[in-house]
Amino acid sequence: MRRVLASLTRAGTLGLQFLDFDNFTSGSGFRLSGKWLKRVLIAAFVIGVVFYEARTSWLQSRILSAYARRLSYTVELGPSPRIRFPKGGPFDARRGYVQIPEFERRLESAGFRIAAQARFSPSLDWIARLGIALPYREAADAGLVVRGNEGTVLH
Q1: Residue-level pLDDT at 51
Q2: For the chain, which terminal residue's Cβ has fewer other Cβ atoms within 10 angstroms, N or C?
Q3: pLDDT bucket at 4, cuts 50 / 70 / 90
């Protein structure tokens, strides 16, 4: 123990400061302060997290799954004040979803009324406004069934 202290004391008298990270000076005059050491360590940590995320997508999966839990809708009586329909895309065009607003207008002009319609949660409405495809359960077959007041199939 005395030998280590004596070595450190001699190193200190020679101008070498091994353990003082707040005020380290190398032989070339480069000064490394504690502030710079903290910045280098933080940068190394951030780079490590970015590489880990690029390989595993751990953070992305946590953020997106937490956000997905807030996406919901309810079906309520009457027309929805904030309903959104797809604007384009081959799948939506092929299945006729882009034509729903026009189809709805024609039916209303013929005397039909909307009995119930979906109400989006604020989170679901926000991603719909951004143009992101909304999550849904895909039906095994495509088609639209229009029922009359009595429940009979009209189209």
Answers
A1: 94
A2: N
A3: very low
Q: Is the residue at 143 inside a domain?
A: no
Query: What residue ranges in the chain does DSSP mark as E strands?
Result: 24-25, 31-32, 73-77, 116-120
Pairwise CA distance, residues 68 & 50, whole Å? 23
Q: Which of 29, 51, 69 is the last residue of a domain?
A: 69
Whole-number Å distance between alpha carbons of 38 and 110 = 72
Total domain count, the chain: 2
Please tell me the distance from the alpha carbon of residue 26 to that of residue 33, in angstroms, as a whole number.
11
Kindly state the tokens that stand for 37. Answer: 């050491």
The pLDDT value recorded for residue 5 is: 46
With both helix axes pointing from N to C terminus, report the angle between 34-56 and 58-68 in degrees, rounded to the nearest 10. 70
